[in-house]
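#struct-queue
[09:14] JT: dropping the first one here, sequence first, then the structure tokens:
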Amino acid sequence: MNLQDILPKMSKLYLGRTLDSFLKDVKLSDEEEMREVIIKNIEEFQNKERVKRNLDFLEEKRDISLLNEMILMSLMENEGYLLKESELLSNVEELENQIITESKDEDYIKNAIPEDTYRIYSSVLTTAWKKDETLNAHEVNILTVLRQELGLTKRDHYLIESQVGRFPQKGNKLHSHRQIENSLKNLQTRGLILRFKSDEVYYIIPSEIARILRYELGGELRNETYEQLLNDFSKVQLKQVLTTINLNSSGTKEVLIQRILKHNLLPSAVLDTLGNNDLKDILRALEGARVSGTKAERISNIIDYYENLSSKVISDPTDNRSLYYDYIEDLAARNYKPLRVNKVIDKDLDTEKYFEEATRYIFEEKLGLPLVEMPGSKHSDGKIKFSSKESLLWDNKSIEEPYTFPNDHFDQFLGYIRANDNRVSLFLVVTSKISHESVSQAQRLKAFTETDTDIAMISAENLKFIAENWKDYSNKKEPTFSLQVFNLTGELTRNILVDRMNWAIE
């Protein structure tokens, strides 16, 4: 979610924490004024250097510092960088437990960390912990430099720290909910996470800073996105990756992928095991990706492509249909890759159904129009009362190519119009791109209805444009949407829609 979508759901206390995180000298008491000031200064909020400064937990107490990282890791791994409060508390516990469990697996540690590297780092870490009950800033700095020199990740550090009985706390004791809540407050005062309440309490990393956090904390891709990247490797390439890092390379493609994921290998490290020609082949298969550049640039281009593939976030976590709304253009165009990566669909057959759900969400929630339920199954995808004696019907058609209005659809729509229990003033086709020949078919269908029914076609992109912008065309505090915006025969282009909203919405 973007900052502007989150702020209206935040109360005064939590708005104040966000405001203080980057505008220290501004003191306000009015909630609306606080929201306005935050939005006006959004460039400062999302400033990369500000975010990096606030990610420095060196001077914090050990428990706060560690839990800050655990919380951010949990949020970054979740779709939309968002979790309910209860889910977040549970996720942090699970993450700490997982690291403890992995630290006890000798084979896992042996494969994850080279023997000499493990020996050196564990010796230094054990010595640092022997002194007292915590690590001071100087010791943390030394360990950070040593990790970088040895090529170890922060997770490797936690694994070894768990082995010496110091993760997450002394004796491998898990953190309490109260300790996690203290860290949640700390992260809010740093402007790294936001708290809001809808039906329940949620915590979120706003999309404006999510990418910065991900790269600064070394989490290059979410697991689901990373798995999609590995699925796009050939089996030969997966074997090469595992062989290069001295891991077992036998098994099915799925087994090889899970082996890479299990060992928490960074995407950049995995890609670095491939040659330049392999990287070029991967990039050529990615639409719009830049193929040229150094090996490091090619690796970055691949990671950026997959990160962008899953960079969208849920606009309204309180309504499950909003996920389909967020991806309505991909559903309309049957753009399966982002739909799978972001868990919008489980199978291709879901696409049409969720496209219909997204459209119903727009009419009900975004336009505020009550839908008319229709009995049986032989009817259009939706119906709205146009007037006391007239209806609007609509039907969804997802298609990879521009919509041509084929004859079987012509017959199908004509049947829906004639079978309706009152006059259909408008029949609306919601699809992806619209071809020129479809306009002629729409005009022909209008003539065949014999009821002067207008036949309009609109792209999912333009329908979403209306959903997000129609209120701006009214001067009323509580505007009402007018179906006259759609009421014509032909394609509802962006220019036509803007013109019609200018005079139809009061």
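[09:21] JT: and here's the second one, same format:
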Amino acid sequence: MTSDFNKLFKNKAINGWRLFWLISIPISIIIISAMMASDLSSGAGVSHMIGYSVRWTIPFIYIVVGTSSLQILFPSPFSMWLMRNRKYIGLCFAVGMVWQGLFIFIISTFLRDYYFKEIYFFRDELEGTIGYIFLGVMVVTSFQFGRKYVNAMQWKLVHKGGIYFLWAYPYSVYWWNLTYAQPRTIDYILYWGGFIAFALRIAAWGKKRQQKAKRQSAINSVPLIYQTLGGSFIAIGLVATATGWYWQKSVTVFLTSAVWSAELELWLPFWPLEPYLPLLTIALGTLFLTKSMRTA
């Protein structure tokens, strides 16, 4: 059975550039069809296309974020296939973002009154601009003609930092959609998809810590106090992940009570990090659960 899956996932039709075209062409056709059915002369119509195009795009950045973690946690022909094609899946994400960028250009250039009245917010603009800068540099350095201008450390910083930022932006958007707006099914799907993608990274990080401890001859068992703290923090983080709309307001008030923090909220991307607090709590719990005692 494993050999059959290996053959399936090595099929040329679903690897490399063929996979890219297999995904990006249908998505572009879907977006073009929706665009033709929308009123692009109105701000509302273009605004709808901005959200519509990005909803077809976000799953690909989530897949890119979780791919290496899947290979660490659940090595299989499927995870190896994802690893081989992570670059092309990321480029499919870039295609969707180009469509979104086109609609943002249209509304900000030709429908400026609607844009500045209904959409524009400085911090959102800053987050989006940084995301597009990261995406552009990542695309260019994904090919040899661009990669030759950066060293290995710079490449890693750009791509890892870019992946985290490009994950963080839609994840926070859909977290806020569940908190403030009347959420739709797609909001739940894209929120939990983003959570699962990053939770896999935390779990993979924890597994690597355990493996490193074993290689360094650390005692395999975790002290009870760390087990208790780790399990408690993870449980708290999971509960907080599913109940953000209950605690968001009080936590935001607390975190922005200082003047400097309130000012940072106006222009610093994602501050004060409410959507990510549950994941940070889970990561802290994982840190405790994988903290082994050293041998003498």
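[09:30] RK: nice, looked through the second one.
[09:31] RK: The chain has two domains: 2-204, 216-296.
[09:31] JT: good to know. The radius of gyration is 21 Å.
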